[in-house]
Design goal:
globular, about 0% strand, 12 helices, mainly alpha
Length: about 270
């Protein structure tokens, strides 16, 4: 094992984990880092399967009790109409409805979006778009509604569809949609990350067509991918703890400042 290469992949996994949850765009950071570290030139698709599955697993474990409760309540209400499970049923409906826009956009524009990941100029612009959104967070919406409605779900879902673009934070833009619709911070964050699960799961299933590449890949490279996968899992979970226990909208400006800096650097690199 080459320890320098191992450290590169650990760094990629760490950044994937943090950037998937923090409003700074994991897709943009991975595109930039893979360019700077000169790794995965021929194996981006397979690498993405490893690290995205790790983040999906971490989010699913973090929300495990909520997911089980929602699935159980959803089907109990369908078959028995017990009022106790009505909220779980509607939450399930809202998640399905909100997932549709991103699913449609991802399916129709899959090849176009995949091509943009290699365009550092576009990635840099995506970072700056996310920074602008975060700077506006303190003045967006009234944020006085606790109970999720179809209005919140549709708005968050439409905004999430924009988050498939590299450099644009999916979590950041989805929370922005929920915030614009008037939803308070905690339910907005929770809904945004619950929405990550069906979208990530759908993307993972579609990407399984690339899993056969594992048989054409060197064993040493697979070991590096597994290292990145472990790091992505751990730091996705840690980032979730931070977002739900320490993060407040007022802190978004610090992420915005960081994104202006890295976005400008990415654009400069694209022009060299």
């Amino acid at each position: 094992m080459n320890w320098i290469t191992a450290l590169k992949y650990l760094l990629l996994g760490l950044v994937q984990g943090l950037a998937e949850i923090l409003p700074i765009s994991s897709s943009g950071h991975l595109a930039l880092l893979q360019y700077l570290l000169q790794v995965n030139a021929d194996q981006e698709a397979l690498f993405a399967i490893f690290v995205h599955f790790a983040s999906l697993l971490a989010v699913s474990i973090f929300f495990f009790k909520t997911i089980v409760m929602l699935i159980k309540g959803f089907f109990i209400y369908i078959f028995k109409k017990e009022p106790l499970y009505k909220n779980d049923f509607w939450m399930g409906i809202y998640i399905i409805v909100a997932s549709i826009p991103a699913a449609i956009v991802g399916f129709l524009l899959e090849d176009l979006v995949a091509g943009l990941f290699g365009d550092l100029l576009f990635v840099g612009i995506g970072f700056l778009i996310t920074a602008t959104i975060l700077f506006l967070w303190p003045i967006i919406g009234k944020n006085n509604e606790e109970k999720l409605t179809i209005k919140h779900a549709l708005t968050a879902g439409l905004f999430q569809a924009i988050g498939i673009l590299p450099g644009v934070s999916r979590s950041g833009i989805t929370i922005t949609g929920a915030k614009l619709s008037g939803l308070k911070e905690e339910p907005a964050k929770k809904f945004a990350f619950l929405l990550f699960i069906p979208i990530a799961l759908g993307s993972f299933v579609l990407s399984l067509s690339d899993i056969s590449l594992i048989f054409e890949t060197e064993t040493s490279l697979i070991i590096y991918f597994i290292l990145a996968m472990v790091a992505a899992f751990v730091f996705t979970y840690l980032a979730l703890l931070f977002i739900f226990k320490k993060f407040h909208y007022s802190q978004a400006k610090y992420f915005a400042i960081y994104l202006v800096a890295i976005g400008s650097l990415t654009i400069i690199l694209s022009l060299l």
